[in-house]
Amino acid sequence: TTSEAVQSGNSITVTLETGTVDRTVVLTAASAGTSLTGTYTVQSGDVTGDLTALSYTIGTVRDTAGNAMTSTTVPAGASNIAGSKAIVIEAIAPTVTAFSSSTADGTYAIGATVSISATTSEAIQSGNTLTVTLETGATDRTVTLTAASAGTSLTGTYTVQSGDTTSDLTVA
Predict the structure, then answer these.
(1) Are 14 and 36 in contact (CB under 8 A)?
(2) Which residues of 118-141 are buried (b: 16+ CB within 10 A; e: fewer)?
(3) Entry pTM
(4) pLDDT digits (tens, 9 = 90+) for 70-108
């Protein structure tokens, strides 16, 4: 929001605190007035506990009388995003930290089932799936692991098929 009406089409570029790499967004006045708007798109790796505007550069901003904006003082407190909203950005993708099985060690024949689990680095949503390839000999097998609830665990079942042979079942 500007202190007085600016001309339609005027713009500024705002730098947002988004973690290791700060992002910019162009704000444009759609019509003469005190509002400039734009859209920040969250990107992979963006992280901040409370989104805030760090700085801005003036593109072409003139008031309705034609006077150019010169101040680049960033508004503080309730006049900055972090002061008026609680917008948390967390765009670090979860990773698999471990694969395991609750099935006892042993030898399993055709039709036997083996429980396979994956643990993720952070909570994921219920219903998320992950397809895992198992080293089962000449023909590797895939198993879909599903998060039964929100959390860090996905589970699935591998069924031994004809021709499967391995001395120690592993994720390929």
Answers:
(1) no
(2) bebeeebeeeeebebebebeeeeb
(3) 0.65
(4) 888 999 999 999 999 999 998 888 999 999 999 999 999
